[in-house]
Amino acid sequence: KKNITNMATILLSSTISQKEDADEDAPLPLAKLRTVISHETYLWLEEADAKESEWKAQLAEERSNVMIDLFGSDENADNNSEGSNEKRQRHDRYETRIKEWTSSHQNSDGFGGISIGDNDDDFVNRSCFPEENYDGNHSENPKVENEHNSENGSITVKYILSEAPGGHGDAIWAASRHVANLFANVKKCRDLLSPILNQDDDDQFIRNGDVDYVQDLSRNPLIGKRVIELGAGAGIPSWSALHLGADLVVCTDQGIADRIRCLAECALRNLEDIEKRTEQSKQFGGEEFNTNNDLNCGIVKVCPYSWGTPIDPILETIRCSNSQQDKELDQVHLFDVVIAADCIYMPDFHEPLLKSIKLLIHRPNKSDHRWGMALLPFALHGNTKDENVWNIVPLAIEMGFEVEVLEGVQLTPQWKNMDMKRGFVNMLRLT
């Protein structure tokens, strides 16, 4: 009886744990996302939710009618679907909605976000290590855990891959992993952002709000910066900048409802992680949990945006919150760092992308003489001749930018059997 009782307790605990995991992985209610989107975006997503619910109900009814016609009863239809349910359950052991990517000083890819197989059943959120050394959960991987604990400034961000078609927002491409990894390495990030860091009158000080800090080479240079990402996909660079102390992060992608909703949820979940980490730091009185524990959480916003169009929706999204902190951003129109990771593989979009960067990049004014900068990490996809992609350089120069071609880095391609060229990340720096 005692053994039976113990077994029942274990099974009950396991069931509760699985339910909690499922609840945690479930999409957040739209109402909870209002703090990171504008009112207009909220109404647009609300309408999209209503249409999706209507479509799902109609699809379920049609499918039920087809099954009844074919098999004569719903019971037979249920039996017939057991195989697909079993396949889905096998898939769910590896797949979760909310995934994680962790930066690394030793591993150019970081950990997570790369697929190993050719179909859904083979998908695992793995690192570059061989499959047998990685089980899909970085926190349970000794290699990842040891490195994460030993690396000062390593960060872990949450992301969700949208299932919506359009663009390539359904994967974590090498360019996104590369720039996020550079951000998390203080020395490399300082080199990457050097054009805007060297503009201060006194290089011994940096300004964050109303407080001047003596520059500390161990402090991430993103602290206090305003960052926007164009064509974000899953937003790994955006969430990394937020974790690393950026004052304002705006994450944008094309107007696909599911894509924007996933980004908004990620923004909120990463912000909550930072707030929890900050609270832990205060409770334990040390820097173990928050290397930037003297800073408040940054502001994060998400909005749909089409390249080459006016930036008014972006500015309105920044100002939309009822918080006093957001209202104080009314005069903030431009950004220190503009990111467009893996966004130039289609030459037809070069000009509108550069037009948007020109509108968004910070320019000197009466109160602030500094310039902003843009980062364009990219791989060559093979969809067009390489020179067509590189033609963005003379076009950018023609439009008034100074362009630097930084050293490229080989990362792991996103998919199994993909050409290694798809994982080689080039970097353009525009000022």
What does this structure look like?
By secondary structure, the protein is an alpha/beta fold. The chain has 15 helices and 13 strands. The strands form four sheets. It has a seven-stranded mixed sheet with strand order 9-8-7-10-11-13-12, sandwiched between helices. Helix 6 (174-184) runs parallel beside helix 9. The chain is globular. The N and C termini lie far apart (74 Å).
Helix percentage range:
40-55%
Would you report the number of β strands?
Answer: 13
Strand numbers in spatial order across the main sheet: 9-8-7-10-11-13-12
The rounded distance between the terminal residues' Cα atoms is 74 Å
Give me some keywords for this one:
single chain; 431 residues; alpha/beta; seven-stranded mixed beta sheet; two-stranded antiparallel ribbon; 13 strands; globular
In short:
The chain is α/β, with parallel strands linked by helices and 431 residues long. The chain has 15 helices and 13 strands.
Helix and strand topology:
Elements: H1 2-25, H2 39-71, H3 74-80, H4 82-94, E1 98-102, E2 111-114, E3 126-127, H5 142-150, E4 156-160, H6 174-184, H7 186-192, H8 194-197, E5 205-208, E6 211-214, E7 226-229, H9 236-243, E8 248-253, H10 257-284, E9 299-304, H11 312-319, H12 324-327, E10 337-339, H13 350-360, E11 373-378, H14 386-390, H15 392-398, E12 403-410, E13 424-430
Helix pairs in contact: 6-9
